[in-house]
Amino acid sequence: MAHPPRHSAMLSLSNSGSSANSDKQQPPQQIQHIANTGLRVPSNRKTIYDRHLNRSRNAEISRSSFAFLFGEMVTYAQRRVTGIQDLEKRLNEQGYPMGLRLLDLLYYRTITSSTSSSLASSSTSTAPPNRPLRILPLLHLIHGPLWRLLFNRPADALEHSVSPDTPNEYMITDNDPLVNAYVSVPKEMHMLNCAAFVAGIIEGVCDGCGFEAKVTAHNQPTELWPGRTIFLVRFGESVMEREKVLERAGIK
Amino acid sequence: MTVFSLIIINKAGGLVYQREFQPGLRKLSTNDYLVLAGTFHGVHAITRSITPKLPLSTASTAATTPTSSNMPPTPGIPNSFTPGSAFTFPNPGTPATGLECLETDKFRLTCFQTLTGTKFLLFTDPIMGNIDVVMKKVYELYADYVMKNPFYQLEMPVRCEAFDRHLGGWLRGRT
Amino acid sequence: MSATKASRIGEELWKTRIDKVNAELVTLTYGTIVAQLCQDYDSNYQEVNKQLDKMGYNIGMRLIEDFLAKSGVGRCSNFRETADMIAKVGFKIFLNISPTVTNWTSDNNQFSLVFDENPLADFVELPDDGRAQDELWFSNILCGVLRGALEMVQMQVDAHFVSDVLRGDDATEMRVSLVRYIEDEMPPEEE
């Protein structure tokens, strides 16, 4: 809702993740929904509407497959760019729609798991989504559940800028980003960090939640963690202003 | 447990990687390494070509390798693939290997050629055993940190920091 | 090697030798790649198919080393064995699926892989634009992977999808044909 032009970029293929989106209520009858589209379906009706959204929740695939796909994404992005910044921007743009989709999936899973115990009798559609209103809950959602969904572990650190000039800056640290596990950046491109893709995912999650932000990935190697990466999250002014209003209103 | 050095030769016989791990051998110039790689590649090809081929009947019934002993003979398959030849080489059937080992008083040179044609050459202490374990690990690290690196171009010199780091780390851990 | 033996090897490797990630990460990443291509090529699906195949080919040429290094298997003695190796070991260790090998031609040069599961296409519905279901092969990258990987072990193959549940077909099926064994590396045959 924050950036219509960027949202529209993800519409070329529809993902079932979007069915959890609040502005797009699913019709009560799945059959009707399918009939409304011009798409053919298999006679055994093996469509996304007939499969549980959680069926792949704990499924696993080889890490190699991800590495090869990600590598090809980087190679493809490289064909169409002029420099390192351009390449990082491109990778960021690839991650962004994934962030929007993952956000829906995260909501869906937090809602269904919390209502199953407390609101067993009422319909899940009436339960308010567990949407973060303030910056910190949003960042915790990213640092914890999002990272676990993507990488099977939480991020390694979450910090707020100590500089009074940049209260809108937050840092999420990953000591050893999965996406860079097999990547060796050539010396002449040493500023490049391919985790710009993950920065794009974070940006998609922030924007999808209504927190306009710019996210970038930076190399911060240590001896123990040569691939250590800081994701710098910079929230827009409107977000910071709203944050003050909400703070005064006592909303957490 | 001494691994002196490793070199990798691409499919065309070009040297794409050379690294020393432990002292013990005298240094070679870069040019000498290039000559070594090219010469070895040529000699290897010749040793392969003088290795007798397996007759077709043997290849399909005697199930050449231990892993394929369960294979039932499948009549009529292999013939269609080997143009004008009663022998099966290199496909289908057991591959002919070339030179695998060279030895001097001071070192042993072991060659492992992958099915894709890349060669890994390890220089080790002649008394060192279990070279195949080291070789297997080197191949796995190559598959991980060279093949999965989007900035590596196939058949070109290997300049992958993560490959150097993991290879060095693993060998150090073994000594 | 029999198909059952290949299955055992695949299962064992998957359990003991394979580092894993969340399947949804792979699914969504692949979906992102396809969506990006559809956008970059202005929904020219023929071109998207071609690009996916090309990407797969690049992957296949690299992935074969990973396959050989992890599995330690030797050369197959015929194309039937190759088919089982692809379906029961290759697909198993990379995507945790085992498509069925079927529909052999009598010369044993062509077979089909039938996919019950396809993690690349989980969550996917093709665009409802009246064309995608007739033109786009969503998982076309897999054809390129097979082509690239087999070329590196001296087999030239043709691989293409003939049906896909995403198009409304009842099964997802890929046809694989052996074109020839590549022997250029070897000295000429003596007569």
Automatic annotation (TrEMBL), chain A:
InterPro entries attached to this UniProt entry: NO_sig/Golgi_transp_ligand-bd (IPR024096), TRAPP-I_su5 (IPR016696), TRAPP_component (IPR007194)
Residue ranges with Low complexity bias: 8-22
Subunit field text: Part of the multisubunit TRAPP (transport protein particle) complex.
Keywords per UniProt: Endoplasmic reticulum, ER-Golgi transport, Golgi apparatus, Transport
Major subcellular location class: endoplasmic reticulum
Family classification: Belongs to the TRAPP small subunits family. BET3 subfamily.
A single GO BP: endoplasmic reticulum to Golgi vesicle-mediated transport
Classification via CDD domains: TRAPPC5_Trs31
Role: Plays a key role in the late stages of endoplasmic reticulum to Golgi traffic.
GO cellular component: endoplasmic reticulum; TRAPPI protein complex; TRAPPII protein complex; TRAPPIII protein complex
Keyword Endoplasmic reticulum (UniProt): yes
Locations listed in the record: Endoplasmic reticulum; Golgi apparatus, cis-Golgi network
PANTHER family found in the cross-reference section: 41-2 PROTEIN ANTIGEN-RELATED, TRAFFICKING PROTEIN PARTICLE COMPLEX SUBUNIT 5
Protein name per its UniProtKB record: Trafficking protein particle complex subunit
Region feature Disordered, mapped onto this chain: 1-30
From TrEMBL, chain B:
Keyword Metal-binding belongs to the record: no
GO cellular component: endoplasmic reticulum; Golgi apparatus; TRAPP complex
Keyword annotations: Endoplasmic reticulum, ER-Golgi transport, Golgi apparatus, Transport
Matching SUPFAM superfamilies: SNARE-like
Location of region: Disordered: 57-76
Localization (cell): Endoplasmic reticulum; Golgi apparatus, cis-Golgi network; Golgi apparatus
Taxonomic superkingdom: Eukaryota
Keyword Endoplasmic reticulum: yes
Compositionally biased spans, kind Low complexity: 57-71
Major location (coarse): endoplasmic reticulum
GO BP: endoplasmic reticulum to Golgi vesicle-mediated transport
Listed SMART domains: Sybindin
Assembly with partners or alone: Part of the multisubunit transport protein particle (TRAPP) complex.
Family the UniProt entry places it in: Belongs to the TRAPP small subunits family. TRAPPC4 subfamily.
Protein name per the record: Trafficking protein particle complex subunit
TrEMBL record, chain C:
Top-level division of the source organism's lineage: Eukaryota
Pfam families named among the record's database cross-references: TRAPP
Keywords attached to this entry: Endoplasmic reticulum, ER-Golgi transport, Golgi apparatus, Transport
UniProt GO cellular component terms: endoplasmic reticulum; Golgi apparatus; TRAPP complex
CDD domains per record: TRAPPC3_bet3
GO BP terms in the entry: Golgi vesicle transport; macroautophagy
Subcellular location: Endoplasmic reticulum; Golgi apparatus, cis-Golgi network
Main location: endoplasmic reticulum
Homology family: Belongs to the TRAPP small subunits family. BET3 subfamily.
Record-linked PANTHER family: TRAFFICKING PROTEIN PARTICLE COMPLEX SUBUNIT 3 (PTHR13048)
Name this polypeptide is given: Trafficking protein particle complex subunit BET3
Native source species: Aspergillus coremiiformis
Organismal lineage: Eukaryota, Fungi, Dikarya, Ascomycota, Pezizomycotina
